[in-house]
UniProtKB/TrEMBL annotation:
Keywords: Aminoacyl-tRNA synthetase, ATP-binding, Cytoplasm, Ligase, Magnesium, Metal-binding, Nucleotide-binding, Protein biosynthesis
GO biological process entries: lysyl-tRNA aminoacylation
Organism: Peptacetobacter hominis
This protein's name: Lysine--tRNA ligase
One Pfam family it belongs to: tRNA-synt_2
Subunit structure: Homodimer.
Primary gene name: lysS
Amino acid sequence: MENNNTEVKAELSTEELSEVLQVRRDKLANLQAMGRDPFKESRYDRTHYSTEIKENFDELEGQTAKIAGRIMSKRLQGKAGFIDIQDQNGRIQSYVRKDRIGDEEYDIFKTYDIGDIIGVEGEIFKTKKGEVSIKANKVTLLTKSLQILPEKYHGLKDQELRYRQRYVDLIVNPEVKNAFITRTKALKALRAYLDERGFLEVETPILNTIAGGANARPFITHHNTLHIPMYLRIANELYLKRLIVGGFDKVYEMGRMFRNEGMDMKHNPEYTAIELYQAYADYTDMMEITENLIAHMAEVATGSTKINFQGTEIDFKPPWKRMTMIECVKEYSGVDFNEINTDEEAIAIAKEKGIEITPGMRRGEVISAFFEEFGEDNLVQPTFITHHPVEISPLSKRNVEDPRLTDRFEAFANRWELANAFSELNDPIDQKGRFLDQLRKKELGDDEACDMDEDFLNALEVGLPPTGGLGIGIDRVMMLLTNSATIRDVLLFPTMKPIDKKEAVESEEE
């Protein structure tokens, strides 16, 4: 029995691999010489998908179907053989007999390789072993694969290859598709939820003349015609708030943001986020939207508000727990910043607790540092952390009862920040002072501080109504909904450092 084993790639030396690849090119040349160039095929009238046939076999048995997909296994014995064909939805077996497709066609069929894309027309039936299959009347080669598919990926080096060659990953590990199907379901649910509540989806610039809307390091480029530096957006916040000034009451935008920062299991230089703004609302309205929206996404995409992430059950069912940042710091560090009122006192307790002191650090920044050190790791179940210090919230409205704090929250789950929201600062005089403070931080070496945006200040002077704003990190939510341990598993094409062919070969030989 001939058995084209897909494990061959891992077992061949570089020289042997080159020979096998040359054999595939020779097969293509022979087909072209016969006038059967597969790359001239323009279309194929497929009538069914694999799972459709399997799920509806009782109704379809005996009917003729045309399927198309990639050969994933091939087992030949004499005048007949079986092949497994993989399409978008799954796999189905085809039974190919010499006496049904003809001697010449069968001889050509025997030369087909794992990875070739074919169309099969034939009768739907079950084998003696009970497997739903297609009894081929005609086999058409639609694309000749000139590469060898690995059987599976394992180990660190192969994991990297999966991300670099996602197209191969999707072929060899079709279960990978499930995460992206879940992602699409969740995003559709998100849009539907907002659309049904009167939010308008809009588009704002990705190329900005000012890096604003968040504290982050931007990617810088240059516009040749205008002779000015430009920045890939780190947030779309300031443009969306301009639209609220202009008279739209509810807007949202979901798309790519770009931050020129570190990469790890939760961070990719380009990532998907959504920001939404609602006039005449505040941060408490944004809390309600956040918990209900994410719970809705989870239920639609997974069937439940409860998800299991790496062995931990997380329940997104509202209402979520609420704590102020100062309450959280007190609970997990024992330090009560309601009793600490000066920058000097805050810095002294920070030194005592081993918190790193940076130039120009003030009480509010010390509170934030305490929260990051002692609080975040305890926030496993969905939790709103509210009332952030003004010093770390340059676009948030001050809290009326304690102007040192803001009406802001961050939403956490699995110890990760998932969302950030606040009652928007609509006082142009206060906002200018916040921007000036950001410039002071930049002079002290903070390359993530915001720039001054004079046009945004002008928009605030025209008048921004009381407004609630919310931003959600889509990729982190998707990691939780798909039980993915790294952000790379929910990005079809994550950012990767390029490697040249020589390095790639050396990596495979190791």
